[in-house]
Specification:
alpha+beta; Immunoglobulin-like; 2 domains; eight-stranded antiparallel β-sheet; globular
C-alpha cells in the first residue's frame, strides 16, 4: 500500500508553494521608484514652463484699476488707477459719496477679497516687507507698502487723489499690488500705530489688470 502524505506535510508543501509564488510576484511588481520620480519630473516640466510664462506676462502689466464699491449701508464709490512710471507707481483716484469736507484713510490691504459686507475679508494693511509699522506716505522710515495717506472730499463730497509711490509696483517683484484691495475708511488716518485708527471700511475694490486706453487723461475728466 502506498503511503499517503500526512496532513502536516501537505500543509507545509502548500505553504512553501504560496511563499514562492508571493516572492516571485513581489519581485515582478516591485515599483521602480527612480523611474516614477523621473516621470513625475518630466510631467511637471510643462507646468513649470507655463507658470514661468504666466509670471513673465504678468510682470509686463503697466496699468491696473480698482473699482470701489460701498460696503454695507455706506455710500463711497469710485475708481482708483495704478500706472507704472519712472520712480514707482502713480496712483490716481476719484471717490464719491463722501461727506463734504471730510477726510478718509486710504490704504491698500493685503487680500483682494471683498466677500464680506463690511470688508474684513480684505485683511490688514499690505505690508510685504513685514515692517509692522504705519507711517505717512514717503516717510523716511520703514512703513507698510499699502500706506497711501488720506482722501479729502470737496464740498460736493468728491475726493480726488494723485500721488506717485516708490514703495510699490504693479506686478513686479517689489511689493506688487495686483490682486490686493483698496480700502476707503470712515475716518482720517492719524498715522498712529499700528494701523492709523481710520475706523470702519466704507468702500472697497480689488486691484486688477486695466485696459491702458484712457490712462493718458485724468480719471475725473
Amino acid at each position: 500500500m502506498t503511503a499517503q502524505p500526512s496532513l502536516f506535510s501537505t500543509i507545509c508543501a502548500a505553504g512553501l508553494s504560496a511563499a514562492s509564488t508571493l516572492s516571485l510576484t513581489s519581485a515582478n511588481f516591485q515599483p521602480n521608484t527612480q523611474a516614477k520620480t523621473q516621470a513625475n519630473v518630466t510631467e511637471a516640466e510643462p507646468l513649470r514652463h507655463r507658470m514661468h510664462q504666466a509670471q513673465d506676462v504678468l510682470s509686463e502689466v503697466q496699468h491696473a484699476v480698482a473699482v470701489i464699491r460701498p460696503t454695507k449701508d455706506k455710500d463711497a464709490y469710485g475708481a482708483v488707477r495704478f500706472e507704472a512710471v519712472e520712480g514707482g507707481v502713480r496712483v490716481t483716484a476719484m471717490i464719491k459719496g463722501l461727506q463734504p469736507g471730510s477726510k478718509h484713510g486710504f490704504h491698500i490691504h493685503e487680500f483682494g477679497d471683498a466677500t464680506k459686507p463690511d470688508a474684513p475679508s480684505a485683511g490688514s494693511h499690505y505690508d510685504p516687507a513685514n515692517t509692522d509699522h504705519h507711517a505717512r506716505p514717503g516717510a523716511d522710515e520703514p512703513h507698510h507698502a499699502g500706506d497711501m495717506g488720506n482722501l479729502e472730499a470737496n464740498e460736493q463730497g468728491i475726493a480726488r487723489f494723485e500721488r506717485t509711490f516708490e514703495s510699490m509696483s504693479i506686478a513686479g517683484s517689489d511689493a506688487p499690488v495686483i490682486g490686493r484691495a483698496v480700502v476707503v475708511h470712515a475716518e482720517p488716518d492719524e498715522f498712529d500705530q499700528p494701523l492709523g485708527s481710520a475706523g470702519a471700511r466704507i468702500g472697497i475694490g480689488v486691484i486688477g489688470v486695466a485696459n491702458p486706453e484712457g490712462f493718458g487723461r485724468p480719471l475725473w475728466e
